[in-house]
Specification:
Elements lengths: L1 E9 L10 E8 L7 E2 L12 E8 L6 E9 L9 E9 L5 E10 L3 E5 L13 H17 L2 E2 L8 E2 L2 H7 L20 E3 L6 E3 H5 L9 H20 L25 H9 L3 H10 L7 E2 L11 H8 L5 H7 L2 E5 L10 E2 L2 E2 L6 E6 L5 E7 L8 H11 L6 H5 L3 H14 L3 H4 L1 H8 L8 H24 L3 H6 L1 H14 L15 H23 L2 H5 L22 H5 L5 H15 L19 H25 L21
Antiparallel strand pairs: 1-4, 1-6, 2-3, 2-5, 5-8, 6-7, 9-10, 11-12, 13-14, 14-17, 15-16, 17-18
């Protein structure tokens, strides 16, 4: 009789333990162990428990390939979810093999775990392991199916498939739900909310992608108190214009930040207007120009008061100190109604000048009156609360849901790989030398740290270009992204296949950067820059003025959003800017999926590099009147989770 010792770890999440019966089978190159139930006196698999057992075998199993976990009914108890962190197996020669799990196991089923040694399909030759890869891939395809949300949109995950998985219904792997079948029958108001929520789409989420209990509780605690406070003060239902601007200060009197107070005090100043194009919530809009666009007839007399007598517009264009922000995409955006009144939207062109003092200042603005790790979970929440009919977007913005769908589909049609990759983006926009561009400076440091980390990992598992080219799973993955996310647009420049490790490193670096740092840069400051509503109004009740100097305070107050619209919009800004608890900052990997020493060393080096970047950012911020901390690594979430 040969004895194998195993160690089973249950996660620390709320309700991670189970009362179900757990058994294991060890699978080796020579033989399989008998199925053995894991059972001590008392409850075995409690939250945070690490239990040890012995598995008796008739012979040595050889190199361990798989651990099968069998989860079955225990006595009369109902089905009970279980979060298994990992299983380690010690063989008779005292060799320890770790089998990472780090997932919720639902219902009664068998789950197969592989060792934590990372392998590509090129490294697997045994039929058993190749078959396991196919089964795992097929299971994921069955669970995460594509769905067409709207014409021109990247494909999205079909949440209904989780409900079908829960009820054990079968379906074709290639099934795709068209937009014409979009069902919003469950779209309804909830007590205390002024907008509709698509309840069914939030009700069936795979447990391994939905928010943890801690994160859910944190999200609700962020949402309910300010919403209730506004409701009790009658602000959420109060229509009509603000009587004076100072009244807006009272909305979030208890949620002020250093940046939000700075915005309130400086929002009308030219230097701060220019600053927001560099370090505000949209720091990727401006680009350097050498000629004025034909639809922007700016003349020297118009800008002479700003430029001064020692230069002219053409000279500054030739020097490379003129920049443009062009909101052309808003030109054809449909507009809706708020509080029963038609709304308006402008498609402005903004000309900015880099002064000799290194300050970016507005020169001219033209309003054209035209005829805005839980990633799957948070995207589903967004579709259920923001993009659903009569959701928040319909309630607080001029363009509403139809306009936002237009912006997103049009934006995707013009989105390129150059725009996706920070170094290429900065070069294409001609902003490498702009001073005080902290988004660029911090972003490039993080990009380079991610790139070095990714390069080490990729080159460890893909020693040459041939390994990349022969990895059929990798090629299928990037091909699916190209087809489903970027709709197969060859002019986008996005790769549809990988030929070299260099191409793979660049793509993975861009994905990680955009899902972590870029999201932090454009999302985290929304409350800071938007809580003073006049700095970022979400709608216009009157068309923009056609004659300079005709605007008065009254006409301005009658144009910016009404009281209830403002409050709903500020609630949105507050929620999306507050990262719920259960955070995992960039570079934090508590689930140990890699067991080899080389990847562990790369992770440690990545973390040290991020710590150094953080120290540099914090030292610089001590010298600034308005610190820029959105790309400080400890404040960047590993993934899009809010």
């Amino acid at each position: 009789m040969v004895v194998y010792r195993i160690c089973v770890a249950t996660g620390h999440y709320f309700l991670a333990g189970t009362l179900d019966s757990i058994s294991v089978t060890l699978v080796g190159t020579n033989a399989e162990s008998p199925k053995q139930r894991l059972d001590h006196i008392g409850r075995d698999f409690t939250r945070g428990a690490v239990q040890k057992y012995k598995v008796n075998c008739f012979c040595e199993l050889g190199e361990l390939l798989l651990v099968r976990i069998h989860k079955e009914r225990y006595s009369f108890f109902p089905k009970d979810s279980w979060y298994c962190s990992y299983i380690t197996v010690t063989d008779p020669d005292e060799v320890v093999t770790c089998f990472p799990c780090y997932q919720w196991i639902e219902g009664y089923c068998t789950v197969e775990l592989r060792p934590g040694t990372g392998k590509t399909i090129c490294h697997d030759s045994l039929p058993l392991l190749l078959d396991h890869r196919k089964k795992e891939l097929r299971a994921r395809q069955e669970c995460y199916r594509w769905k067409i949300y709207a014409p021109g949109f990247p494909r999205m995950v079909d949440v209904n498939s989780f409900e079908e998985m829960e009820s054990d219904r079968k379906f074709a792997l290639t099934k795709m739900t068209p937009s014409a079948d979009q069902d919003f029958s469950g779209n309804r108001y909830l007590p205390g909310f002024t907008f509709k929520i698509d309840i069914p789409s939030l009700s069936h989420m795979d447990p391994n992608i939905r928010y943890s209990f801690t994160k859910t509780a944190s999200l609700l605690s962020n949402a309910i108190p300010p919403s209730l406070g506004m409701k009790l003060r009658g602000l959420l239902n109060r229509q009509g214009s603000w009587k004076k601007l100072d009244d807006i200060r009272k909305i979030f009197w208890c949620h002020k930040t250093l940046t939000s107070q700075y915005v309130t005090e400086h929002w009308k100043e030219d230097h701060f207007f220019g600053y927001q194009y560099l370090n505000g919530v949209n720091p990727v809009m401006i680009h350097q120009i050498s000629n004025l666009p034909s639809n922007f007839p700016v003349t020297d007399p118009m800008v002479a008061p700003s430029l001064g007598p020692s230069t002219c517009l053409q000279a500054e264009l030739e020097k490379g100190s003129i920049f443009l922000a062009d909101y052309w995409i808003l030109g054809e955006a449909p507009v809706g109604h708020l509080n029963g009144r038609p709304q308006y939207v402008a498609a402005p062109l903004c000309l900015l000048w880099l002064s000799p003092q290194g300050v970016l200042l507005p020169l001219a603005i033209q309003l054209l009156l035209p005829h805005t790790r839980y990633t799957l979970q948070v995207n589903t929440i967004a579709r259920a609360t923001l993009l659903n009919p009569e959701g928040l977007v319909d309630q607080v913005t001029s363009i509403g849901r139809p306009g936002l769908l237009y912006l997103m589909s049009t934006g995707l049609a013009h989105f390129t790989y150059t725009m996706f990759c920070l170094p290429d983006n900065l070069k294409a926009r001609g902003v490498q030398c702009l001073p005080n561009y902290y988004y660029r400076d911090d972003g490039m440091k993080i990009w380079e740290a991610i790139e070095k980390f990714v390069s080490e990992i990729v080159n460890y598992y893909y020693p040459s270009d041939t390994f990349v080219q022969q990895d059929s799973e990798l090629q299928a993955w990037v091909g699916e992204i190209f087809t489903q996310a970027f709709l197969g647009r060859k002019n986008s420049g996005f790769p549809s296949c990988f030929n070299t490790t260099e191409e793979l490193v660049k793509f993975l670096t861009a994905v990680i950067f955009n899902c972590s740092a870029q999201h932090a840069a454009v999302n985290s400051g929304q409350h800071d820059f938007g809580s003073w509503m006049p700095n970022a109004p979400s709608s216009m009740r009157n068309p923009p003025p056609q004659t300079k100097g005709t605007t008065t305070l009254k006409t301005y107050l009658d144009t910016i959003p009404e009281v209830n619209i403002t409050c709903n919009n500020l609630l949105l800004f507050w929620l999306v800017s507050q990262e719920p608890k259960d955070q995992r900052p960039l570079g934090t990997y508590p689930d140990e999926h890699f067991t080899e020493e080389a990847p562990r060393q790369s992770i440690a080096a990545f973390q040290n590099c991020l710590a150094q970047i953080s120290e540099e950012i914090q030292d610089r911020n001590k010298t600034l009147d308005l610190p820029y901390a959105y790309l400080d690594p400890p404040l960047i979430e590993n993934s899009v989770s809010i």
